[in-house]
Amino acid sequence: MNEILSMLYLWLKSAHLIFVIFWMAGLFMMPRFFVYHQESPVGSDEDAKWIEREGKLRKIILNPSLVIVWVVGLALAYDIGAFSQGWFHAKLLMVLALSGYHGWMIAYSKKLSRGERTMTDRKLRLVNEVPGIAAAVIVILVIIKPF
Ligand code: HEM
């Protein structure tokens, strides 16, 4: 029985990491899309194509991956009793921040599809650094478990 449970845990952890990769890929791609999208005139064919690409990235990659990473991550945490451990509290804080960033990106892609362009390219490129930094901190927290 214990063997089955530990096998299940490893399968869950694999699923977690697979969807973390999809989620992160989407988080890295979207602001790049925004930079190219903003170069096209509002209402042009190019604008319509970017709106469609961003919609697909949201619906096919970003939103499903976010949900799966959270559900499987919480199941893993329950399994190993992580809720009382310091590294997990810090990780939760980081993934909440990353989920907030996800929410901002979804909102900005909807703004772009309404023809509103409120951020400069420079700001978008800067913001693009957020998921990389967050991912590095999260990986160190889960692997090293410093506290
Ligand atoms: C969204 C909510 C998330 C929750 C609740 C969560 C929770 C967990 C838990 C409980 C583990 C098992 C740790 C262990 O077996 O020692 C784990 C593993 C892992 N998580 Fe997450 N996680 C989340 C998101 C993420 C994100 C966004 C990343 C990376 C950017 C990430 C990267 C990893 C890695 C690399 C492991 C493997 C650690 C190991 O095998 O030692 N997780 N996660």
UniProtKB/TrEMBL annotation:
Binding site for heme: H16, K91
Protein family: Belongs to the HemJ family.
E.C. numbers: 1.3.99.-
Co-factor binding comment: Binds 1 heme b (iron(II)-protoporphyrin IX) group per subunit.
Amino-acid biosynthesis among keywords: no
Subunit structure: Homodimer.
Compartments where found: Cell membrane
Catalytic activity: protoporphyrinogen IX + 3 A = protoporphyrin IX + 3 AH2
Cofactors demanded by this protein: heme b
Record protein name field: Protoporphyrinogen IX oxidase
Keywords: Cell membrane, Heme, Iron, Membrane, Metal-binding, Oxidoreductase, Transmembrane, Transmembrane helix
Listed pathway(s): Porphyrin-containing compound metabolism; protoporphyrin-IX biosynthesis; protoporphyrin-IX from protoporphyrinogen-IX: step 1/1
Keyword presence, Transmembrane: yes
Transmembrane feature ranges: 6-28, 60-80, 86-105, 126-144
Lipid bilayer topology: Multi-pass membrane protein
Function comment: Catalyzes the oxidation of protoporphyrinogen IX to protoporphyrin IX.
